[in-house]
Amino acid sequence: MSNDLELLAGACIAAPVGYVLWRKAMKARGLMHGTATSKIATAAKGFVELSGRARQASARSLTDPLTGAPCLWFHMLTERRGSRNRWEVIKRDTSSQAFVVEDDSGACAVVVREQEVERAKAQLVVKESSRLRHRLWWIRDGDLLYALGHLDRLAPGESIEPGPPAADAAQLAEALLREWKQDQPQLRSRYDANADGRIDAAEWENAREAARASAAAQVIERETRAPAALPGRLPITHRLSRPGDGRPMLVSLRPEAALARAKLGQSRLGLALFLGGAFYILSQLRRCVTG
Question: pTM, whole model, 2 decimals?
Answer without folding.
Answer: 0.69
